[in-house]
Amino acid sequence: MPVNTRNHLSLLVFFVVVLLLSFSSNAQDFDIESQDVRRSQFPDNFLFGTSISSYQVEGGFLDDGKGLSNWDVFSHIPGNIKNNENGDVADDDYYLFLEDIEIAHSLGLNAYRFSISWARILPRGRFGEVNPSGIKFYNKIIDNLLLKGIEPFVTIHHFDLPQELEDRYGSWLSPLMLEDFVLLAETCFKSFGDRVKYWTTINEPNMFAEMAYIRGIYPPAHCSVPFGNCSVGNSDIEPLIIVHNMLWSHAKAVKLYREHFQPKQGGSIGIIAHSHMYEPLRDGEYDGQAVNRALAFTGGWVIDPLVFGDYPPEMRQYHGSALPRFSPEETEYVKGSIDFIGLNHYSTLYAKDCIHSPCIVGGDHFIRGFAYTTGERDGILIGELTGVERFYVVPRGMEKIVDYVSKRYNNMPIYVTENGYSPSQTEQVPDLLHDVNRIKFHKGYLSALARAIRNGADVRGYFVWSLMDNFEWAGGYSTTFGLYYVDHRTLKRIPKLSAKWYEDFLANRSRGSNREGFKSGKKGSQRFRKSKIIIIARTEAKATEI
Asked: Is 204 a catalytic residue?
């Protein structure tokens, strides 16, 4: 055999081995994605939707009487947002909401989660009047969703609030916020409750505390070392205060709803917590305890008081007097104040004990539950990287976190209100549209969710984050979770491959050739068909072949 031929064969064998090793590695990351998941594996009345939030998509930041929000102010300060971007226009949903509802309808969604802009309907909180234009805007969204057979799933507060409340008394750091939040909730119940049957009061109090008061990268940018370098704040104490005020406000709003609106309107109400799943970094009792603390100090921080009337015992043990206490009156309001749990879940991390062994700075603080969390063990990542820090692809975590929540809270109904995938921020438009990894992600996580349901968890809905790429807070527009790409030069919504996959999944199609229909943009507005970007994105892959 000639030398060149032998060399070529050696190279071929080498590349085949590398390819096989790569497939083996990826099989661990997407450990269940290869399983075919079908709509028929979920209950007939199961809600399948997408999620968006007001500041991230609406734009129209001062239009028709809307007031300044905390994010309007924060995003205009240079250096706060990647590329100094802001939500002044965002996805222009304030003007294009009918098109977005039509997109949701074309996908086959039966639910649509969105949030209310506090500053749009109460521009100055209780210090001003209700804005009729804001009420009219959300009425149009709700009415047009219902016309399409889509259930509105409404979050009352999703991070954005009138800047005046921050300026007057420090917003969530003050118990005065309770009166303002209850007014907001009452305005929503009165204006929309005759048609809205699914309410969540507050999105992710624990994540808001993390980003705004521990790390200080969301407004009002409070933090202290070692978590951040802010001009004001205490990362160990302030998060406990603001979450306490949020939970107390939630409870008051729920009491109002149950006494004055729910009997006639017939809806249900809950709250949304964010939670990773955690696995022990090392075998042994201590890291197992660290897992329990990490779970208690995230989702348990929010949900335990609303089910049991007090914070998790793990928090009481380590926070001591720094953790606020509910008075007997408050406990009566708080305990049992949810009809369901909203769960935002994206990823899984390892947890390491920091009580009996040294940790890097941060994990050794009680605000972290004396647990250090990481996505790496012995140089090996827990799952594939995504475009978001600490969001790894670990589908098994969905089954584990749902099982954990179900058992901890006596099988209370659960809605997975956010789950999604963002690729590397270096991807160009053609790759963003050919989003094979997003399809793998959702197949894997939905397979895990179906298993949790078969195991007895009372899960009643699943919402993809997000319908379309949007303003992802401090990350600006570089982080892309959407099923639709938004060209911010033209504001055109352009379907990614995952949009076709989700449509097929919801129609219970797992085979068949829909490639040409997807390429030509049959679903959606006429302008999609004419888009030159769609031509760039053409591919021989079918969504059903992923």
From this structure: yes
